[in-house]
Amino acid sequence: xxxxxxxxxxxxxxxxxxxxxxxxxxxxxxxxxxxxxxxxxxxxxxxxxxxxxxxxxxxxxxxxxxxxxxxxxxxxxxxxxxxxxxxxxxxxxxxxxxxxxxxxxxxxxxxxxxxxxxxxxxxxxxxxxxxxxxxxxxxxxxxxxxxxxxxxxxxxxxxxxxxxxxxxxxxxxxxxxxxxxxxxxxxxxxxxxxxxxxxxxxxxxxxxxxxxxxxxxxxxxxxxxxxxxxxxxxxxxxxxxxxxxxxxxxxxxxxxxxxxxxxxxxxxxxxxxxxxxxxxxxxxxxxxxxxxxxxxxxxxxxxxxxxxxxxxxxxxxxxxxxxxxxxxxxxxxxxxxxxxxxxxxxxxxxxxxxxxxxxxxxxxxxxxxxxxxxxxxxxxxxxxxxxxxxxxxxxxxxxxxx
Length: 402
Ligand SMILES: Cc1cc2nc3c(=O)[nH]c(=O)nc-3n(C[C@H](O)[C@H](O)[C@H](O)COP(=O)(O)OP(=O)(O)OC[C@H]3O[C@@H](n4cnc5c(N)ncnc54)[C@H](O)[C@@H]3O)c2cc1C
Prior knowledge:
This protein is α+β, with helices and mostly antiparallel strands. It has 13 helices and 20 strands.
């Protein structure tokens, strides 16, 4: 009988697997695809660096020489504000990376395997049942089409958009945000800032209710994408023409991407906002956006997936050692608070208040630091007013900016 079966070898699965295996637990990770595989979610937050270090995966990531990301920059026409992570709160990480996920996820999975995790690619989890002795997973080896049963004391769902347990246990809850669409690709030849600002993420606010991401990689390529209401994408022709028409109609993106050429087929995603009625139960837990996922505007997805995976791994470890865990308080409520901090930001962004606040250049230093700390992913830090009472603090600030 295994200690833990993990579904999915993305960042969440690898963080949890590495932590458990280093603690001496027997862990199998089942991954339906084979790596490297493309995945969206390329801009990390500084908080993820703490989590990688805690799982013993930091050295493997550092060796990849990913692009250093020291700040998030928000732009609208002539307006521009840079949030440098070094100017958040003391003790928080001053930088993180922009990563091609194919390379990042493979690096983490390989390092997790070295830490002792039995990672099985092309193995899909089709069903899970729970009983007093633990869980039984029904798994298909996609290469041989052979199906077999795997027994484990605990199951950790790190399946991301696969949402395996949410579907199998009927935990899906209606989303609270309106539907949006994204078109994106990778380009070569964008005009990057020089020096330490080269790796910043740019978030450009489009005049027609959309926003644009520009995420530069160390391999010379740059990820570009547009997110907005579906109507915005109609009437421009092919998806590539639509993407570039929208990029060209925002002046900052237009200048930066003037000589840039796509190197990937344009991709489209929509309907990513999802929620579950609960994130844990006896013998199981759901991490990251296998549970709740809001919106990509603050690049929080991978970091929150890692945050929840690391926490669930520690709680499983304690339970396996025979100690009691209060899952509702220690996991359910904690992760709801973390997601909730970003939800206040996302709601305020789409209501139009947060763009004004972010772009205001006369903010007191203390406010800018607190905002930067949230943008860096430190959303469980109760000393931060934007974490303690995000909605109220944002509403009060919005009254002060014209
Ligand atoms: C448009 C857009 C832009 C985004 N930009 C960012 C960004 O800049 N930064 C950021 O942090 N996040 C971003 N995200 C979010 C990000 O994509 C996810 O939050 C992140 O990939 C979650 O990581 P994970 O480890 O939980 O899951 P994943 O990376 O999705 O890994 C899950 C794995 O589970 C496997 N799996 C699924 N089903 C099964 C099964 N039945 N059996 C076995 N294996 C299975 C999958 O093959 C996959 O490899 C963005 C999202 C969208 C929609």
